[in-house]
Amino acid sequence: MGMLFAPKILGLMLALFKRGEAAKMGGRVKLVLSVLVESVLASLLAPVMMLFQSHFVFGTLLGYRVNWSSQQREDADLPWSEAARRHAVHMAVGVGMLAVAALVSPALVAWLLPVAVGLLLAVPLTVLTARSSLGMWAARRGL
C-alpha cells in the first residue's frame, strides 16, 4: 500500500505546500479531490490490472502468443458487451474468491473485499472510465 500511496501523498504535499503550485492545478480543494478520486479508482482497478498482467506473463512463460495491442485512443465509448467479455474472468475470480473465503472463514471475506470489489465492479468501472464525456465533465470542473 505504501508503494501505491506514498508517491501520491508526497506529490500532493509538495503541491500543497509549495507556494503557487496548487493554484496551477485548480486550487487546493480541486487538487485534493482529484487525488482522492484517482486514488479510489487506482485502488479499484489495481486487482484487474494485476490479473491482466499475470495473464500476459504466464502466457508468455507457457509459450502462448501474447498480443500487446495499442490502446484505443479514439473518442468512442466502450460498449457494455465488450467490457463484459473482457472482464468475465475477472468477475468470476472475484466471486470465486469471496465464495471460497465464505466457506473457509466468513471473517476472511472482509479482508478480501478491497481486492474483490474491484474485480466485481470491473465492467462498470471500465465502461465509466472509458467515457470521454466523463473525462470532459471532470476537466470542465478543473479535476
Could you explain the architecture of this structure?
The mean pLDDT is 89. This protein has one domain (2-65, 78-140). The chain is globular, with a radius of gyration of 18 Å. The two termini are 24 Å apart. It has helices at residues 2-17, 21-24, 28-61, 80-104, 106-120, 122-129, 132-140. It has seven helices and no strands. It is mainly alpha-helical and 143 residues long. It is 78% helix and 0% strand.
From the structure above, extract its key features.
143 residues, single chain, 0% strand, mainly alpha
Question: Topology of this structure?
Answer:
Elements (H helix, E strand, L loop, with lengths): L1 H16 L3 H4 L3 H34 L18 H25 L1 H15 L1 H8 L2 H9 L3
- What would you report as the Rg, rounded to the nearest angstrom? 18 Å
Q: What is the beta-strand fraction?
A: under 5%
User: CA-to-CA gap between the ends?
Assistant: 24 Å
| Overall number of strands | 0
The H/E string reads HHHHHHH
Principal-axis shape: globular
Protein structure class:
mainly alpha
Helix count? Answer: 7
Helix content: over 70%
Number of separate domains: 1
Multimeric state: single chain
Average pLDDT level: 89
Largest sheet: none
Q: Would you identify the regions where 5 or more consecutive residues have pLDDT less than 50?
A: none
Describe what is shown at a glance.
By secondary structure, the protein is mainly α. It contains seven helices and no strands. Helix 3 crosses helix 5 (106-120), helix 4 runs antiparallel to helix 5 and helix 4 packs antiparallel against helix 6 (122-129).
